[in-house]
Amino acid sequence: MANTRGEQESSSSQSSALRALPSVDRLVGSESLGALAESVGADAVTHAARQAIDDARSAILTGMADAAPNLDSLAEQVAASIDDLLGPRPRRVINAAGVIIHTNLGRAPLSRAAIEAMSNVGRGYSDLEYDLNAGERGSRHAHPERLLQFLTGAEAAIVVNNNASAVLLALAAIAGGREVIVSRGEAVEIGGRFRIPDVLRQSGATLVEVGTTNRTYAADYAEAITDNTGALLRVHRSNFLVVGFTSTPDAAEIAEIARGRGVPLINDLGSGCLLDTAQFGLAPEPTVRDTLEREGSDIAMFSGDKLLGGPQAGVAVGRKDLIDKMKSHPLARAVRIDKLDLAALTATLQAYARGAALTEVPVWRMISADVAALDERSLRWQENIGGKGLRVVEAETAVGGGSLPGGTLPTRALAIEPARANADALAERLRVSGSHPAIIGRIDEDRLLLDPRTVLPEEDDELISAVRAALEG
Ligand SMILES: *Cc1c(COP(=O)(O)O)cnc(C)c1O
Fold first, then answer.
1. β-sheet bridge partners, residue 449
2. What's the pTM value of the predicted model, to 2 decimals?
3. Distance CA 305, CA 361 (A)
4. Which of 15, 102, 177, 307 has the most CB atoms in a 10 Å sphere around its CB?
């Protein structure tokens, strides 16, 4: 009996809560939303108001709320939802996490020249596929090709949407319908479900695995080659290390086997690098030129937005007859690069061609920043933020993004041990503050670490005031 009465009471308080909800018209007609509708249009405000009222209704019906929110709080919710709908997306964030190529944060920040190039080409028309001298149709592939020949020594080049599509296109165009030989240690998942065996299947080629997870010899490739072999594929182990009892055949040895048997050697470099990484204390990586000239790959492929430091793109360089097959394959149209990325990529490559990548390309400015300068910036952050619980500490910046597995650089980070909250709560406040761009830090043993190496110098003042506000808040 008591139960039934309880339920009746709750259902009658529920229906009075539902009755207290305003109509969409009343909410839209409220003072603050009237002004908002003037600036962004009534349709968007009506849409958001309907959603806010629906949400409040479900909260009441599911017992999450026992009263209707008042008109002001609903109006605030509508204004926030309009901000969310009509504000910039993706939003700019400040990367203080100390991971240079951070895929979740958009990988490489672009150079000033790359941004200008995008803006110039985006604003009007361009000779994207028009040959100005001949006055007839041209090719979008022509724009970066000479630069890539100069920078890598390759005979030819094609640029597509991203490296995943470069790999797919290369396999389809060069080895479609035939067998492709891959070491078991390299039949890997790069991330985001990009698995080499799956990509091979999609390309129409058949995977032939050789060797074992930890040890593969050049002879394994040689024994697996048949009349139906379309290519040998090598894949950079971008995001993991194989240590212990391991053996990877010398790249040049595989190339010699490939050449001797007339089978192309395709090399997915992942990040791909045009500069010497060892000069900054990182693991030595063959440059793209080394891969082609010294190691004898016929095709090398890499991302535009990893260590190259440009926009999303996939670059394939190498033998002209093979690149021509890629250019004329039907998939090329499906994976073609857009004009804005092409403009940014060309501008980025030009920085390398002028020998100015270390000073102009943000990724390389970050890699080459010296520890004394980073120490100075962290100290300046500490002084300007002020208060207790702040210390400059030794830390490591990761190169990240499936670039150099395990590759880190020494840095000096600002460590914050907040007095009134824990580090997670502070990290959350910095992500969702709203009045500043989100600041992404890294938690390390109950401290929040902020690494200046991945923060653009022009973002320092924003970071200082955001952290100060978050510590006060
Ligand atoms: C990152 C990576 C890819 C994918 O490149 P995207 O440009 O992200 O498409 C492919 N292969 C390797 C080895 C990689 O590291």
1. 415, 442
2. 0.92
3. 11
4. 307
Which three-class secondary structure state does DSSP give residue 159? strand
CA 327 to chain CA centroid, Å, is: 26
367 pocket-lining for ligand 1 (C-beta < 6 Å): no
Closest residue CA from atom 12 of ligand 1: 270
The C-alpha atoms of residue 327 and residue 160 are separated, in whole angstroms, by 10
Measured CA to CA, the distance from residue 138 to residue 6 in angstroms comes to: 78
Specify the length of the chain in residues.
473
Q: What is the mean pLDDT of the chain?
A: 92
3-state secondary structure of 441: coil
Task: Name the pLDDT band for 1 (thresholds 50, 70, 90).
Answer: very low
Q: Which residue among 169, 171, 190 is best mutated to probe the pocket of ligand 1, counting the most ligand atoms within 8 A of its Cβ?
A: 190
For the record, the structure tokens of 359 come out as 């000073």
Measured from the CB, is residue 341 less than 6 Å from ligand 1? no
Q: What is the pLDDT of residue 16?
A: 92
Neighbours of 151 (CB within 10 A): 20
Flag whether pLDDT at 4 surpasses 60.
no
Pick from 268, 297, 337, 345 the residue to mutate for probing ligand 1's pocket: most ligand atoms within 8 Å of its CB: 268
Phi, psi (5° rounding) for residue 208? Answer: -120, 110
Give the single-character DSSP code of 66: S
Question: How far does residue 266's CA lie from ligand 1's centre (Å)?
Answer: 14
DSSP state of 195: B
Rounded distance from Cα 194 to ligand 1 centre (Å): 8
Which atom of ligand 1 approaches the CA of 239 most closely?
15
Kindly give, in sequence order, each residue whose CB lies less than 8 Å from that of residue 353, ignoring residues fewer than 6 positions away.
147, 150, 151
Residue of the nearest CA to atom 13 in ligand 1? Answer: 270
pLDDT digits (tens, 9 = 90+) for 66-102: 999 999 999 999 999 999 899 999 999 999 999 999 9
User: What atom in ligand 1 is closest to the CA of residue 402?
Assistant: 15
Q: Using alpha carbons, list the distances in angstroms from residue 249 to 184, 253, 402.
A: 13, 7, 22
- Report the separation in Å between the CA atom of 160 and the middle of ligand 1, taken as the mean of its atom positions: 13
Residues of the chain with pLDDT > 90, as a percent, come to: 78
**DSSP secondary structure letters along 29-64:** TSHHHHHHHHHH-HHHHHHHHHHHHHHHHHHHHTTS
How is 69-124 classified by DSSP, letter by letter? PPHHHHHHHHHHHHHHHHS-SSPPEEE-SSBSS-GGGTSPPPPHHHHHHHHHHHHS
Please name the residues in contact with 281: beta carbons below 8 A apart, sequence gap of 6 or more. 409, 410
The predicted pLDDT at position 133 comes to 95
